[in-house]
Amino acid sequence: MKFAVDWLTDHLDTKLNDHKIIDKLTNIGLEVESFENQTSEFDDFIVGKIVNTEKHPNADRLRLCDVDIGKSETVKVVCGAPNAKNNLYTVYAPPGTIIPKNQMKLSVSKIRGVTSYGMLCSESELNISNESEGIIDLNVKKYGNQIGKKYFKNSSPKVIDLSITPNRADCLGVKGVARDLAAAGAGKLKQKKLHKIKFSGSQKIKVKITKEKNQGCTSFGSCLIKGIKNTESPKWLKDKILSLGQKPISAVVDITNYIMIDLNRPLHAYDADKIDKGIIVRNSKKGEKLDALDNKKYILDEGMCVISDNSGVLGLGGIIGGTKSGTELGTTNILLESAYFEPKSIRSTSKRLGIDTDAKFRFERGIDPNSIEEGLVKAAELIQKICGGTVSKLDVVKNEKFKNKNVKFPIGLFKQITGFEIKSNEIIRILKDLGFLVKQNEGHFNLTVPSWRHDIAQAIDVVEEIVRIKGYDKIKMEIPEKTRKKPTLNKQQKLFHLLQRSVASKGYYETITWSFTDSRINDMLKGDKQSVEIVNPISSDLNVLRSSIFSNLLSYLKKNLDRDIKDISLFEIGPTFYGNKPGQQEIVIGALRSGLVSRLNWIEKERKLDVFDAKRDVIQSLVEIGLDQNKFKITSKAPSYYHPGKSGSINQNNGERVPIAYFGEIHPNILQKLEIKTEALILFEIYLDRVKLSKNKLKDQKRKYQFSDFQKSERDFAFIIDKTFKVQELVKIISEIDNSLIRDVKVFDLYEGENIPNDKKSIALNVTIQSMDKSLNDHDLEKINKLIISTVETKSGAKIRS
Amino acid sequence: MSDILKLKEEYLKKLSENISLENINQIKSELFGKNGKITNEFKKISNISADEKKKFASEVNSAKDEIQTAIEKKIKDFEIEQINSKLQSEKVDVTLPERSFVQGKIHPVSQVIDEISSIFSEIGFSVEEGPDVENEYNNFTALNTPDNHPARDMHDTFYLDHKKEFLLRTHTSPVQVRTMLKGKPPFKIIAPGRTYRSDSDQTHAPMFHQVEGLHIDKNINMGHLKGCLNHFIKEFFEVEKIKMRFRPSHFPFTEPSAEVDIGYELKDGKIIIGEGDKWLEILGCGMVHPNVLKNVKVNTSKYQGYAFGIGIDRLAMLKYGINDLRAFFDTDYRWISHFGFDPLDVPSNYRGLSR
User: Fold this and answer.
1) Which residue of A376, B42, B201, B243 has the lowest C-beta tally within 10 Å?
2) Fold of the domain spanning A708-800
């Protein structure tokens, strides 16, 4: 809420200066967003000095003036004034300025063939006087050192912009702000007596609030003011309206706006002559129309609270009035409305129609239901004073009577919550200043909550009132205890943390991208998961939750390639989604790597990245989180965005149905569709939630340390085997022949081609043989050799290569 | 001079001259081969008379030893010389670049989450998490923000269905609800994570990170809240002292509520935390509203406590001098390289949060 700081003094007797007030406001929870000079249309006019004049080449009566305006260079201005001469101090208006007299906006223009930058002004053009003969001649003594400075000193008071939290509707009026300040010791709240106005006659327009379900209006106060002359507002009122950042319109409108800001009491003025018989406050019917004061047409739904007459809707109660019954300068008889509308009803109607007005903002948060009469009287008084007329008696129709809330406040609660003590009489003083009625009892107070405080419903709310007025700085700091009763991270969180750093340590850059993505990309990656659409996305290319960790990573990879960065390694760890219900998400770490290994390297041969680079990184990461590589089962099944022949999946154990990871090269179609240009692109992904972690701590996982010092032997074998036979199986066959002797099996060569049938390959393996309990002699070795060959040949159909 | 002594002198002289490795091998076989000169002398020993035998044998033995020593030395010299000459030819320019190595990076937000977890770990908080997709009840209603509450307007919410039942959580506070519903007090948790609001401009991203804090126990009051946050802010910014200001504010789920500002000043365009007279809002907090505690079945006559919510991205920006929020989520390789952290730099209590 914005208003000029001096408006506060209408309600507050204070000795504090502006800055103390600002601090105080912040300290009691009325956050000051800004405290600034009002910008004014007069700011542009500056003091200038004519340093040189010449005759205009094409016009006898015009002169070309070089004007010093306090900048490094002078400006050229064409001027017709007879008194434009060297060394004259005058007022200069740059291009863009609006001239007060004719409201014309200056532009750079050619005047009879010569360009003029701005204008030198006469008093009449500035609306200072009627003097239009010649430009202003400023006193050298006074203005000699003012070149370039503003001519009009900004004397208007500074404007406070308060950010009022939604609970503090009462502070959407200057009076409420003053009340809070007074309670906090900034001064004394002025108790103003209403001037007596002479009411003449009763309010003749009949008002009815229909009794129906969800009626949004509980009371409707009004008075009729007859025979007014609506006019321009007086200066003091105009200034107030301007300080709100609004434009003065007419006295009647300005007064209703003024009362709204002053007392947080929205009003509405109708042209009484345009009301057809009586006022009916009722729920709207579907399809009813309203031409509103914001110049928009609204078609109403059922059940919106409307003010109507016998021929139709006049306005949406508490939100906006209609043009049909609006006041104009020619209006002579007005009906002034001061009503109470239910916040729920206001909120629902304004949301459905998408209207936001100052009145709506206030009613939605809850205004003081007991301010109906005060608002009417104060407005009527001002209208009468400025526009004349006679005021009828007030008419207040009520469907419900407002009852103040009562709260029982146990005095000890304050210390229990805040940790510090405050004397009872200080509590009473603060609460009374805030408008509470306080009844003292044994150990507690019975409080009557002021009608303007909708936010106070229970004792805890009262604690906040006291502590914020007393000052949060009074809360004593308790040093935190350094004890830990529960481990900081659980197993799953440790896994997240470790895997994140494990992948990063392999040269990948971690990134964080949106959890939502472009459905067009997501569709290429989502497999058989359902799309999770966002009903109200911020843009059409971020319209679904990501089904895959790669949905965004791929497009960001492309962005970096487009920046001409060639070898990129990126990863992200985070949620992917398979449904729109809580929990239908799983954590995935996904990594992408593009380009070449050893690009432009003097010592290493450069080569394209391939599936085995991806496999190394994924396996090594899984080993680092504590999994046993020997138990992994690798298959060649991977999601469709992987290259079908160069990708695989990893199952944690042989029996596990769902893979914990995939790796491989990307499917060329994806590159093509996304227009990604790179030599190679590999990727892998690990599903953290699928990883089965040992329940044991590391200390319980370690097995007994066993080693052998007996002679170790190595034997090489080469088998010719079907091309489709998986090497993983071959290694497994050999490893399982004799656990007590075969320590290790290494694959050291793969050969296909000459001397080997087309459908076969040759695999060379190195087998380490060592016994735990003796040195093996030639005979033992020969035995195991033969066993290896015969077992492999029987189980795999391979032939030993001689 | 005996023949043996002559032989010895002769060969020792030869060995002292500049001879090749072949020459040495030749000398070896001349002397110690099957019919070598020294070998033959040894053969003579058995034929010599007893009284001369001892002297002769000692002469032969000493000749053998001396010559062998000389030969060994000569060979060693050769080897050394050989290595030296090899080394001469093996010099490389070590200023050439090393074999390639790629260094990875941890995103500043991840690093800061680890820093935060490390600090709160020390004072007994454990980490809880909740889903990114929430239901309307956990995100709003349970947190004392009913449907008709204007505070809902302050959260521009992404919805996942037309009934507005499912949404992307607008804050990490629903984790409070989940944690308290599934457990029994006391609670002492932090909950870092992704949060979402349909708001996007220079200073707002549609996704950002928050960390929620919750401490519920007997007699936990605003003084504990103040002490906890003071500890956190001081540790996090790694400064000796900080200026901190609690300012009354409003959140539906806390009462009383506060916003916390920290004092700072600008020096050469950099923000210095803990000095100066400017204030920067960094978090919101308060005592958990009794309505919230009732919603999650916590006995309010026994238990009370505080909660807070901090913007992680903003903390990271302040601490590490990052001035563009949008850049966090833009995956610019150059930016990650510049602001990212070495994966081995794990924040911890004993070696400190950062280098």
Assistant:
1) B201
2) Alpha-Beta Plaits (3.30.70)
Residues A23, A160: Cα–Cα separation, whole Å: 12
Q: Kindly report the average pLDDT of chain A as a whole number.
A: 93
Annotate A391-413 with b (16+ C-beta within 10 A) or e (fewer).
bbebbbbeeeeeeeeebebebeb
pLDDT tens string A482-517:
999 999 999 999 999 999 999 999 999 999 999 999
Yes or no: say if A14 and A21 are a contact pair by the CB < 8 Å rule: yes
A–B CB contacts, 8 A cutoff, strictly below: 262
Q: Do the Cβ atoms of B246 and A473 come within 8 Å?
A: yes
- Kindly list the residues from chain A whose CB atom is less than 8 angstroms away from the CB atom of residue B287: 417, 460
Q: Give the pLDDT score at B21.
A: 83
Chain A residue with minimum CA distance to B104: A507
pLDDT for B103-114, tens place per residue? Answer: 999 999 999 999
Q: What's domain B108-339's architecture?
A: 2-Layer Sandwich (3.30)
Is there a contact between B133 and A574 if contact means CB atoms under 8 Å apart?
A: no
**B294 interaction partners in chain A (CB closer than 8 Å):** none
Q: Which amino acid is at A553?
A: L
Residue span(s) of chain A under CATH 3.30.56.10 come to 2-38+156-189, 410-450+457-474
Residue that is written with structure tokens 């709240």 in the block: A189
Q: What percent of chain A has pLDDT over 70?
A: 99
Tokens of A275: 């009301």
Question: What's the token pair of residue A353?
Answer: 């129609």
The 10s digit of each residue's pLDDT in A515-570 is: 999 999 999 999 999 999 999 999 999 999 999 999 999 999 999 999 999 999 99
What residues of chain B lie within 8 A of the CB of A479, using their CB?
A: 227, 231
User: Which of B106, B133, B195 is the best substitution to test chain A (most A C-beta atoms within 10 A)?
Assistant: B133
Ranges in chain A annotated CATH 3.30.70.380: 708-800
% of chain B at pLDDT higher than 70: 99
Fold classified for A410-450+457-474: Phenylalanyl-tRNA Synthetase; Chain B, domain 1 (3.30.56)
**B222–A419 CB contact, under 8 Å:** yes
pLDDT of the residue at B33: 87
**Predicted pLDDT at B17:** 85
Whether residue A477 and residue B223 make contact (CB cut-off 8 A), yes or no, is yes
Of A29, A343, A420, the CB nearest to B148: A343
Query: Does B5 have pLDDT greater than 90?
Result: no
Is the predicted pLDDT of residue B353 greater than 70, yes or no? yes
> What are the residues facing A685 on neighbouring strands?
A590, A662
Q: Are B273 and B237 in contact (CB under 8 A)?
A: yes
- Give me the residue from B135, B168, B250 closest to A166, CB to CB: B250
Interior CA angle at A180 toward A176 and A184, to 5°?
165
Whether B306 has its CB under 8 Å from any CB of chain A: the answer is no
Q: How far is A83 from chain B (nearest CA, A)?
A: 50
> Is B278 near chain A, with CB under 8 Å?
no
pTM: 0.85
